[in-house]
Specification:
Rossmann fold; single chain; 10 strands; elongated; five-stranded parallel sheet; PPK2-related
Amino acid sequence: MFNQFEASTPLDKASFEARALTLRQQLLQSQFTVEDTRDPVIIVVAGLDGAGKGVLVHRLNEWMDPRGIETNTFWEHSDEEESRPYFWRYWNKLPARGHIGIFLGSWYTHPTQALVEGKIGTAEFKQACERISIFERQLADDGAIIIKLWLHVSEETQRRQLEEKAPRRQQNPRVTDHPYELTGKYQRALDVSEQLIRNTQTLQNPWHIIDAEDRHYREIKAGEIILDSITRRLEQPEVPPQPPALPPPGDFLAEVNLEKALSKRDYKRKLRKYQAKLQDLAWEAYRQKRSLVAVFEGWDGAGKGSAIRRVTGAIDPRLYKLVPIAAPSDEELSHHYLWRFWRQLQRDGRSTLFDRSWYGRVMVERVEGLAAQHEWQRAYAEINEMEGELAAHGCVLAKFFIHIDQDEQLARFQAREREPHKQHKITAEDWRNREKWPQYERAVNQMVEHTSTRHAPWTLVAGNDKYYARVKIIKTLCKALERALY
């Protein structure tokens, strides 16, 4: 592979400066144009140690306006990062729409070095590559321009670069000694690099291999690739394919027995029992560093809030974070819709409780026309992939949809209007959404059909009786934690 790419032609200083002047002007103009679009630009700078990655990133910041660029480095992973799913650290650093994010050290670094050093096997490495390709596809499908640059140098050039810099490490130390750990492993690193590129090379997000032997050539070539990638997207924006219509879903909601109920006496007894159990399990999860991610969805007036209060009443406040989800802010709208959920995930051993969640994309946003058909249909796979990442990290996932019938919802809406201390709970939007009950019902059934998986199954909760619903939710949480912890 590395013998087939375009070899560099050394540039003298005068030629470099002449070409750089024009290139810099063009890059600046493309950057300003991108700012007016909904397209974030993600530039991954990867390659062998000693290939000049850091110098190239410095040059890109010099050529373009650094106020619209965020350079991200991942020299060492902090405790905050290690105690969350792998891609959490990268989701948090994604650029907003119209901005440029440069990743010097990226999602590629850890699996590549781990395979070189023999810490993982080939099968695990391939799985990591598949997860990376999924991550990049999700971003590109949402409009991101992903530009992946791989800088290649010969073994002699790498040795010279590392040995020349090594004596100065005490006077001018790097953030980490890691770049020197691969000295003497050039061929192994090259073989792994080729596997990495082949396993993550896609038409949508291709790699660009650059001969980095000559610094001037390397910088001009990288700048030209970035300029060409941005220009082509601006001139020919991607038109998402129209997805086929989904077949009618199964009627999962109709299978929920809404007659289930508990007497007040049984409710109090069972609530005490399962709250005590959940309290113990939450502390055991903390000791085992297993996180709980719980999603609460349901009809307006179904009792999500009161059910959540019974859950939080059983867990030490130090062990959970409740995340209420409303309409996205301007900052959240400037990112992929999953961004605002990824960044809320708590550390290992703690619980993240979502009052509404990423499922808004396939319910509210779908029904209200806030997401195009190709966006909400694509979201089924994206959500399953996200939840798969959480499960792979060891998170325990629990998803609840509280179901009530239309008569019960009407009764609760009317009660809210009559009682002064509940009037804040009812809005004109609640009444308007009620008129779209059939559309929401279809959306919920399709959501359950396409996103109930082995590691993240849906629990449809009969909610006409609030006592039953609360106990059912806490009991289900206890069972999910028990299966994971014992």
